Amino acid sequence: MLKSKSSAALLGVGSVVLLLASLLYNPSPSPQQLAELKGKVVVICGASSGIGEAASYEYAKHGSQLVLIARRGDKLERVRNMTMELGSPRVEILTYDFAIPNTAQQLVNRVMDLFHRVDVVVLNHASLVMGAWMAFEKFQQEEFIQRTFQINTFSHIQLVRYFTPHLEATGGHYMVTSSIAGEFPTFESGVYGATKYALNGFFYSLQQELIVRQSNVTLTMLSFGLIITNEIKAALVEEEGTLESIPGWYKGDLEESAEIIVEASVTKPRSVDYPRVAVKVMRYSFLFNPWFHEGSIAMAAGGYEELAEGHRRIGKVCRQIDYQTENQV
Description:
- This protein has 329 residues and is of the alpha/beta class.
- It has a single domain (30-233, 247-284), classed as NAD(P)-binding Rossmann-like Domain (Rossmann fold, 3-Layer(aba) Sandwich).
- Helices cover 55% and strands 13% of the residues.
- It contains 14 helices and nine strands.
- The protein has helices at residues 2-24, 31-35, 50-61, 73-86, 104-115, 137-140, 142-170, 190-212, 230-238, 242-245, 254-267, 276-287, 292-295, 304-320, and strands at residues 41-45, 65-70, 91-95, 120-123, 173-179, 218-224, 226-228, 251-253, 271-274.
- The protein has a seven-stranded parallel sheet, with helices on both faces. The protein has a two-stranded parallel ribbon with strand order 7-8.
- Helix 8 links the parallel strand 5 and strand 6 (218-224).
- The mean pLDDT is 89.
């Protein structure tokens, strides 16, 4: 009995130590590793705004050659000009709609025609859907759900199918931007969360498969929380007091998230959480809280209809600044 209690105590202590280590450990790249990015061909999907745009600037500072991909050519032109000013020796832009199925091979072929090699692929594009599923008829439409899954999940899988042989030629690396919404379900992100759960399921499995196959291609999963992009900031400011009411430890900085992407593309960890404390707290509160499903709605500020009206106001702002207009109610 004493031996059993001692083993349980040791197991408990070990679990706490591992948890603390996961919170504190953060591998930093050496200057030599970062210098290796010079001249590397980096493909960034969703590069016209937000995290993808910020990551483009960060790679440019390290002298990487860039392929910037997004739907809006005018926005990509602006990003290209800035990346070249920051030091990228060559920047190509490709306009592409990730909502269109069965076209990934054409996109990959265009990339290879331009550079004949690829070293890093950043799969960052996403269709952000904000709002409770039953509150808005638009979110329940089959066409809308299919489109969201095509952008957030299926296009990633299709791109990996065609990029992987080229990454095998260089020993390249995937960076996959996911979300804590794929691990921590809330009633305000049903469709979006479902696409991210599916994304995580596929890419964590692929990560294992690459290891078992002894492939020279590596993959990092990025589990991001609330990153305050310029667009998110504009939308939340409309909801008076919302941005200020969010605690600092819960919010991620845009430039820091870009630095994390670039650094992880050379240190190549299996996964990265950011903001680290917020993501881990949310993940563990779901996994180890037996009352989570009963309490998740109670944690929301305001009633159901008030929250829905708030999302309508946020959607109006997003349309005004031309951000993810197809997803707004």
